[in-house]
């Protein structure tokens, strides 16, 4: 297993997930809630792809096949954690925007 390629797969997918989450928030701020949902669904897919790679690493570790921990892998894990957190927060903020639009009668 090429640890650099694994780390970059996590970083790439997590980064895309985070970017899509914020794009969804911008759409919701404009009242484009269907588009926001679509973007969040895409963000979840990218997050699941990154998480799948991470899960494979964890399973390998559990099977006694140790994983080299280096700065790149720590960086990748940070990206994944931030993508998950961003998506969860954006989901909540989208609901706030939806409620505000309803209260304003828009």
What's the shape?
Answer: elongated
Number of domains: 1
Question: Mean pLDDT, rounded to whole units?
Answer: 93
How many beta strands in the DSSP annotation? Answer: 0
* Alpha-beta classification: mainly alpha
Specify the number of helices: 3
C-alpha-based Rg, rounded:
17 Å
Amount of helix: over 70%
By CATH's scheme, which homologous superfamily applies?
Phosphotransferase system, lactose/cellobiose-type IIA subunit
Modified residues (Phosphohistidine): 75
Active site: 75
Keywords: Magnesium, Metal-binding, Phosphotransferase system, Sugar transport, Transferase, Transport
Protein name: Lichenan-specific phosphotransferase enzyme IIA component
Fold and architecture overview:
The protein has 106 residues and is mostly helical. The protein has a single domain (3-104), classed as Phosphotransferase system, lactose/cellobiose-type IIA subunit (Methane Monooxygenase Hydroxylase, Chain G, domain 1), CATH 1.20.58. Helices cover 86% and strands 0% of the residues. It contains three helices and no strands. It has helices at residues 3-29, 33-62, 71-104. The longest helix has 34 residues, at 71-104. It starts with a helix and ends with a helix.
């Amino acid at each position: 297993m090429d640890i650099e390629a694994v780390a970059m797969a996590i970083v790439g997918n997590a980064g895309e997930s985070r970017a899509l989450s914020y794009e969804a928030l911008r759409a919701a701020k404009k009242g484009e809630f269907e588009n926001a949902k679509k973007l969040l669904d895409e963000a979840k897919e990218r997050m699941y792809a990154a998480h799948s790679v991470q899960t494979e690493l964890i399973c390998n570790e559990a099977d006694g096949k140790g994983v080299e921990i280096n700065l790149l892998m720590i960086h990748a894990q940070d990206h994944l954690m931030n993508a998950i957190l961003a998506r969860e927060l954006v989901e909540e903020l989208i609901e706030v925007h939806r409620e505000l639009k309803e209260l304003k009668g828009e």
